[in-house]
């Protein structure tokens, strides 16, 4: 039995979704075997139904990852600089205590590696990092709330 291309075109979506009867499927396959036009139609169905859903999901997935990564990078950067400056300040003050300092007769404080000002500098850096860290966390939180509402 030969079916016209019009009939096959009507059947193709059903055939593609595998919801037509076995008999119809056989007829469609028989027709597809020697009709390149209808094979093209089936290929179009494949592309139309599959590619948009996959790419949409993929794009969303990538967006989520890149957003998370961007946020995490900023937060972890400030967190790392907090840790390093706190550690550096601690080292400065501990080594200052270990090395000690001399008070010259004229009242000036002599300490070999300028540990106190450097220590305070690191404390300042720590405070700045802390502020930025909290700021980035706050921004991330606000963005999340905006998305929800
Ligand atoms: Zn055909």
TrEMBL record:
Q: Which residues cross the membrane?
A: 80-99, 119-140
Q: Does the keyword RNA-binding apply?
A: no
* DUF3955 domain ranges (all copies): 83-132
Lineage in the entry?
A: Bacteria, Bacillati, Bacillota, Clostridia, Peptostreptococcales
Q: Which organism is it from?
A: Aminipila terrae
Q: Which InterPro entries match?
A: Anti_sigma_zinc_sf, DUF3955, Znf_put
Know the name of this protein?
Anti-sigma-W factor RsiW
Alphabetically list the UniProt keywords. Membrane, Transmembrane, Transmembrane helix
Q: Where is the Putative zinc-finger domain?
A: 5-39
Similarity remark:
Belongs to the zinc-associated anti-sigma factor (ZAS) superfamily. Anti-sigma-W factor family.
């Amino acid at each position: 039995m030969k079916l016209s291309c019009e009939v096959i075109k009507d059947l193709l979506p059903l055939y593609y979704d595998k919801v037509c009867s076995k008999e119809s499927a056989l007829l469609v396959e028989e027709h597809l075997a020697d009709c390149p036009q209808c094979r093209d139609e089936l290929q179009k169905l494949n592309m139309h139904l599959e590619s948009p859903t996959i790419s949409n999901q993929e794009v969303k997935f990538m967006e989520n990852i890149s957003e998370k990564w961007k946020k995490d990078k900023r937060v972890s950067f400030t967190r790392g600089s907090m840790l390093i400056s706190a550690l550096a300040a601690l080292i400065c003050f501990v080594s200052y205590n270990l090395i000690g300092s001399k008070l010259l007769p004229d009242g000036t404080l002599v300490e070999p590696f300028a540990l106190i000002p450097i220590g305070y500098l690191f404390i300042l850096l720590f405070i700045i990092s802390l502020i930025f860290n909290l700021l980035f966390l706050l921004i991330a939180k606000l963005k999340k709330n905006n998305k929800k509402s």
